[in-house]
Amino acid sequence: MKGYVVCMWEKINSEEKLKEYALKATSAAEKYSGKFLIRGGRNRTNEGINSPRTTVLEFPNYHTAIEFYDSPEYQEALEVIRGHAVRHHQIVEGS
């Protein structure tokens, strides 16, 4: 089964840091065969918190999605955005 990284952004305090994070995160995702299915775009909140951004990445399997998140490359990207955004981040197995 495939692995998915789902990120619901609750608050983004710095668009500049978001851009820097996105470059590093994209590079890390490519290294682990990640494919962006959703990366921002228009959205409508029907229930729950209003999210300014949603990101969904697809990986070949759940284990690879975990490897991506735990990788030094992605951890470096996280350091860029830390303190500049509030988000909910999950790794989910699915078809």
Describe the structure.
- This protein is 38% helix and 35% strand.
- The chain is globular, with a radius of gyration of 13 Å.
- It has three helices and four strands; from the N terminus they run E-H-E-E-H-H-E.
- The chain has a single domain, classed as Alpha-Beta Plaits (2-Layer Sandwich).
- With 95 residues, the chain is an alpha+beta fold.
- Helix 1 packs antiparallel against helix 3.
- The protein has a four-stranded antiparallel sheet, covered by helices on one side.
Question: What's this entry about, in short?
Answer:
This protein is 38% helix and 35% strand. α1 (15-31) runs antiparallel to α3 (72-81).
What is the secondary structure topology, with strand pairs?
Blueprint: E1 2-12, H1 15-31, E2 35-39, E3 53-59, H2 62-70, H3 72-81, E4 85-94
Antiparallel strand pairs: 1-3, 1-4, 2-3
CATH architecture descriptor text: 2-Layer Sandwich
Number of DSSP helical runs: 3
**What is the CATH topology classification name?**
Alpha-Beta Plaits
**Fraction of residues in helix:** 25-40%
Which spans of ≥5 residues are poorly predicted at pLDDT below 50?
A: none
Number of individual domains: 1
**Major beta sheet summary:** 4 strands, antiparallel
Give me the strand/helix succession. EHEEHHE
Q: How many extended strands? A: 4
Assign the structural class, choosing from mainly alpha, mainly beta, alpha/beta, alpha+beta, or little secondary structure.
alpha+beta
Biggest sheet strand line-up: 2-3-1-4
The CATH class assignment is: Alpha Beta
Strand content range: 25-35%
Q: If you compute it from the alpha carbons, what radius of gyration comes out, rounded to the nearest whole angstrom? A: 13 Å
